[in-house]
C-alpha cells in the first residue's frame, strides 16, 4: 500500500508530504491537491499544494547543496546512484501500484516502468564516470599563425540547479531520465512531478533519500503546474530546465531565461507502409505502437499512411488484432485501460465525432464508459479531419490511404510535430531515402517508434522539442565546458 513500510514517513494522515532539505514536510499552506483515479474517477490520493515560499527555500538549499556535490568525486556520485537504483527496484511493487491507481497504467507495464527506471539510473552512473572522466587537450599550433605556446585543457562542469518536470504518462521513468544525468554530472535537482503520478514520484524520491544523498541535493515540490509552474520555470535560481510534456513546453521556452532547455514535447508519429512491406509485421507493430498504454505515449503510432494497393489487406489484419485487445482495468492488466482524465476522454471523443461527421470509416463502433475508450481504427481518413493532424493521446488510430510515397512523406512533413516516424518496406535503399526525407528526430525502419533503449538519442524537431535526450546526451546537456589555458613563454613541442 502507498505510504506504508519504508515509505511511512512520506505521508501525514491522508496527505503525502513534499521533500525539501532532506526531509519530508507539510506545506504551511495547509492546502492539498487531489489525485483522481482514472478508473474509479474518485479521489485516490492527496499531495501538498506547495507555495512560492517553499519553492524559494528549495532553490536556496539546492544551490548550496550543489556546490558541495560538485566537489564529490565522480565514483562516489556513481556509487550513490547505484544504491538508489537498487532500492528503487527493491520497492518496485508499491511504486508500480501507485502508477496503476494514479495513471491507470496496466499492472505489468507499471512494474516494467519502475525496473526500467532503476536500470536507467545505473546506466547514468556508469556512463557518467566514463564520459565525465574525459576532457580535451588542445595545442595552439594547429591554428594558423600560432606556435605551440598554449595548451588548452577542457572539462565538463555542472550547470548548477536543474529543474525537472516530467509528464503523467511515465512519471517515474521520465523523472529519473532527468535526475540521473543531472546528479552524476554534479548538479542539484528540483523535481516538480505531474499531478497524476505525483505519489509514485514521491515514493521514487524516497528511494534516493534512503540511498543517503546529501540534504537539499534533491527536492520535490508538489502542486498543480498551472499554479506553481510559472514561478518554478521563471525562478532565478534555476540553471537548466528539462521538461517533457505537451504544448506547455512551448510556453515555458518563451518564458524561461537564458538557460539551457531540454524539451520533449508532443508527436504525431507517422507509419509509412510500402507495397512490399511484411504486412503481418506491420499489423503487429501498429497494435503495439498505436495501442500500448492506450495510445498515451508521445512515441505512439498516431497516423498510418499506407499504399492504397495493400491498404485493404493491412486494415483487415489490424482489425483482427484490435478485436483481441482486452479492455478494462489496469489492475487486471488489460491492454486498453481508462485514459488519464475525463477532459482527455472528452478531447478524444471530440476528434472521433469530427471524423465521423466528415465521413471516416469506423472499423469498430465507438464505445466509451467514463474514461475508458474502446480501441478504434478509423479508415479512409482525409486531410480535412482533425484526427489527421492532432495527437489524440488515446486508443484511436487514423489510417490515410496514399497513392505515392511522396504523398506519405508530404503528410508527415506537413505536421507541426517532428518526433519519430517509421517505415515498413523490405527495400533498405528506399527506406533510407524516405528516412532522410522525413523531418523527424528519429525514423525507425521496420518497427514502431520508441524512445528506448534509454541510452539511444531521443529528440524531436519542430514543435516536438529542443535538444536531445537519451542518457549520454542528457549528461552532456546538463554540463558546460570549462577551459584552462596554460601559456608557455617559449614554444614547446613534445618529442616522442
Ligand atoms: N516527447 C516526449 O518525450 C513526450 C511527450 N509527451 C507529451 O505530453 C503530453 C501529455 O502529457 P501531460 O502530462 O498531459 O503534459 P502537460 O504539458 O500538460 O504536463 C507536463 C508537466 O508540466 C506540468 N505543468 C503544467 N503547467 C505548467 C506550467 N505552467 N509550468 C510548468 N509546468 C507545468 C504538469 O504538471 P501538472 O500535472 O500538475 O499539470 C506536468 O508535470 C502529450 O502532448 C504528449 O505527447 C508526453 C510524454 C513524452
Ligand atoms: O513519454 C513517452 O511517451 C515516451 O517518452 C515514449 O517512451 P516509450 O517509447 O519508451 O514508450
TrEMBL record:
One of its GO terms (cellular component) is cytoplasm. PROSITE patterns: ALDEHYDE_DEHYDR_CYS, ALDEHYDE_DEHYDR_GLU. Its main location: cytoplasm. Pfam families: Aldedh. Keywords: Cytoplasm, NADP, Oxidoreductase. It is found in: Cytoplasm. Its EC number is 1.2.1.9. GO terms for molecular function: glyceraldehyde-3-phosphate dehydrogenase (NADP+) (non-phosphorylating) activity; lactaldehyde dehydrogenase (NAD+) activity. Residues 24-483 form the Aldehyde dehydrogenase domain. It catalyses: D-glyceraldehyde 3-phosphate + NADP(+) + H2O = (2R)-3-phosphoglycerate + NADPH + 2 H(+). Gene3D superfamilies: Aldehyde Dehydrogenase, Chain A, domain 1, Aldehyde Dehydrogenase, Chain A, domain 2. InterPro entries: Ald_DH/histidinol_DH, Ald_DH_C, Ald_DH_CS_CYS, Ald_DH_CS_GLU, Ald_DH_N, Aldehyde_DH_dom, ALDH-related_metabolic_enz. It comes from the Eukaryota. Belongs to the aldehyde dehydrogenase family. This is NADP-dependent glyceraldehyde-3-phosphate dehydrogenase. It comes from Escallonia herrerae.
